[in-house]
Amino acid sequence: MNLQLLISLSSSSETPTNSLHPPSLPFHLVEEILCRLPVKHLIQLRCICKSWNSLISHDLNFAKKQLRLSTFNHDFQHLNISCTNSSSELLQFDFSISSIFTSASTTNQSPPFTCRRDYDLEVSTCDGILCVGIKGCLPFLYNPSIKKSKTLPPFKITTTTEHRPFSTLYTLVYHGVTNKYKIIALTLYLNNKSEVNVHTLGTDYWRKIDDFPCHSLACISPGIFVSDTVNWLLYDNCSYSMVIVSLDLKKESYQKLLEPLGSCVSFGALRGCLSVVSNSDMFSDVWIMNEYGNENSWTILLRVPHMRDFGFIGYQRVLYISEDKQVLMEFISSGKFSLVIYDSINNTFKIPTIIQNNNNDKMAPPQVYVKSLISTFF
């Protein structure tokens, strides 16, 4: 339905009705229409009348319904790129996934987006909210759609001469069992010890979850949230191998999962499943765990040949797979991270022309997310 028509048909008690006005829609039908619109339009429509503003800005059930309907809509998917520049300012770039696919140029251009990857900056996403961790600063939550943020409380990190922290990775999750948002913090120490703390939004404290079962100084990425578990891919200094450590949020217990055979270089989630990328000399395999927790269910989802241009070194992560089998990926080009689109049907590559960036900037791993109106804890 055209927005102007919707506005004219949704005359409420706030707008007098007379013979010159078209018949008004019941408010519950207006709500059903509005919840199917993208967040960008809803933000603009808050000024139409008080009832619309109240619904869009303050109704949690409406926000959840709009998010649920948006999650599987290709047109509502976005890519967030967060960087810090030479002045230590945090920069955020946002692109719709559909625009990235449609504006891609051919491979005769240099990659337009190259940036230093730096583990001092990490971003995780959940329900349209970004959880940003910057070394030396308190982590904070930010909903870029509604421009609201919240700094998280500090938690105590045990520091001694022999027990010094190396890095902390934050993961924002929504725990459906408790209907709460939580932040899971994994701290790696220089003596190869690790510990996990959890913060439930709405409280002012962190709790430690003991007995982390891995001694590691190398974690591939922030935790990946799948099937009510948070998962990390780490190098285990005891077994001298890569291992997935899983935290069950309901039981608050850990288990180890084996990765598929191969040299895994990245860790993430695709189609609601754990996913890894393993590189060989000629191609990269994208694996998914079809049945969570079943190590025998690892399956190759797709095989991507290596590019021969741009000083290609290897693929890092698969960010998104479209309905027509186009694959948005990160790759390393001459020591820097770039984006590429692989058409798995026609076996061709394209470089998205999105933004030019300063090579001195430090970039967090790009995140695919859906915009939302969630604001209950800001």
Overview of the structural elements:
InterPro entries: F-box-assoc_interact_dom (IPR017451), F-box-like_dom_sf (IPR036047), F-box_dom (IPR001810), SCF_F-box_component (IPR050796). Pfam families: F-box. It comes from Medicago truncatula. Residues 19-65 form the F-box domain. This is F-box protein interaction domain protein. The protein has two domains: 3-71, no CATH class; 74-370, 6 Propeller (Neuraminidase). Strand 7 and strand 8 (148-151) form a beta hairpin. Strands 1, 2, 4, 25 and 26 form a five-stranded mixed beta sheet that branches. It is globular. The chain is mainly β and 378 residues long. The longest helix is centred in the first third of the chain and has 12 residues, at 60-71. It contains six helices and 26 strands. The two termini are 32 Å apart.
Write down the domain tally. 2
- Portion in helices: 10-25%
Return the structural class: mainly beta
Structure summary, number of beta strands: 26
Number of helices: 6
What is the H level of CATH, i.e. the homologous superfamily of the largest domain?
A: Kelch-type beta propeller
Mean pLDDT: 83
CATH fold assignment of the largest domain: Neuraminidase
Q: Major β-sheet, in short?
A: 5 strands, mixed
**Low-pLDDT segments:** 105-114
* Level-2 CATH architecture of the largest domain: 6 Propeller
The geometry reads as globular
**Proportion in β-strands:** 35-45%
Roughly how many Å is the radius of gyration?
A: 22 Å
What separation lies between the terminal Cα atoms? 32 Å
* CATH classification class of the largest domain: Mainly Beta
Protein name: F-box protein interaction domain protein
Pfam families: F-box
Domain F-box: 19-65
